[in-house]
């Protein structure tokens, strides 16, 4: 089928950037991104593309080029579904917070709602593409809903997992290491795969477009994220050993990373990985393994999460013990709240958990993040339901000026590796802090020599 109209359900961190790049590269295909959230759609339609709801370097320019030409953002979900020949499902799939599989399985209610909506609305044949990360065999559930509740039209289900990393989404989409498309082995399935291959082939070379069966595609996404997260937990495990033995984790990472079999990426010790994918995908993997009775497999992957939780906890414990075993009433400034640099996404950010630990110790927290709003910080803390909203609002203040944020603080914790943190006037910051002035660098970002010369007591991860 030659595709000239695409719809994407879900205008979030995945759907928005991915569709913007498809629209930019395929000017002859109409791409409509729909979402139930009117405020989000309004922001995507903001005349000033700097105000779009997802902060990604390079994205405003792509949206500027394609929006109004062949890229549209709308809340008219039914209309977009009906018009499109190919529908991407890119809605959120959070970890279940209730019932069976609580805390582990993905909550598929949003996906199911989409499937039912597509089935209800569609009057012509559609290719439905899973874009969100989903547990293996979701396609089967989608298929069942579409075929049993539809109007007799034909549906082909494809899995096309997204591998973009936030902060580098546009570059990752423009130059992907690979594009993965899973579909049925039937002639109709193969035709549907080909239609999607043809879209990516507008800018991705054919050798980089892999086609597989649906289950391999679904499982590859979970496995890729599990392997990446495992590398971070592995180096973080070594960071603790380094701190005890006098080795330096950056030196160890460099030494092992030069082994071409290991490679040098994803070996940066940190306060712990965050983001919407790693933990959720590993939990999915663990849940699937458990549900097949594969307990060793489940426990093996679960350890990656256990290590990550330990890394976060030990960071906050170290702050408390270094500050003479009490942070009660002490101001601690967080540099960074996002889960990594160059994004405004805070989902599962280590900062949230470090803050929660320190608040339990009655600390006062002051936050500076160049892209995260005060409202988001409060939302993230309230979501944990550890204490009242009122208490969070009293104990945690956000600032838009970093020097204000650091004034009278006992300590600074670096939680996101924003480049701008390296360029601050650190002498000026030191002068306004209480002494001794501590820095806990959870990203091994800052220049220790320079800071120690000024007078800071500086601690990094793994040395
Ligand atoms: C990840 C995958 O990389 C991407 O392919 C997938 O599509 C979605 O999940 P993302 O979560 O956006 O992407 O960011 P990523 O760059 O993978 O970082 C995840 C977390 O690991 C961040 O908190 C990051 O700071 C941390 N990290 C990463 C480290 O602590 N050390 C490293 O060496 C690398
Ligand atoms: P991701 O990182 O996977 O893109 P987000 O939470 O950023 O996740 O985006 C998912 C989007 O999907 C949200 O904006 C949400 O409003 C939207 N969404 C969820 N369910 C539906 C639905 N049934 N129809 C339309 N949009 C939906």
Automatic annotation (TrEMBL):
Active-site residue numbers: 277 (nucleophile)
Keyword tags: NAD, Oxidoreductase
Entry annotated with the keyword Transcription: no
Positions with a binding annotation for substrate: 162-166, 221-225, 261, 268-274, 339-340, 443
Residue span(s) of domain UDP-glucose/GDP-mannose dehydrogenase C-terminal: 333-448
One Pfam family from the record: UDPG_MGDP_dh_N
Pathway annotation: Nucleotide-sugar biosynthesis; UDP-alpha-D-glucuronate biosynthesis; UDP-alpha-D-glucuronate from UDP-alpha-D-glucose: step 1/1
Catalytic activity: UDP-alpha-D-glucose + 2 NAD(+) + H2O = UDP-alpha-D-glucuronate + 2 NADH + 3 H(+)
Keyword Protein transport appears in the UniProt entry: no
Broad EC category: oxidoreductase
GO MF assignments: NAD binding; UDP-glucose 6-dehydrogenase activity
Secretion signal span: none
Annotated family: Belongs to the UDP-glucose/GDP-mannose dehydrogenase family.
Protein name: UDP-glucose 6-dehydrogenase
Originating species: Flavobacterium croceum DSM 17960
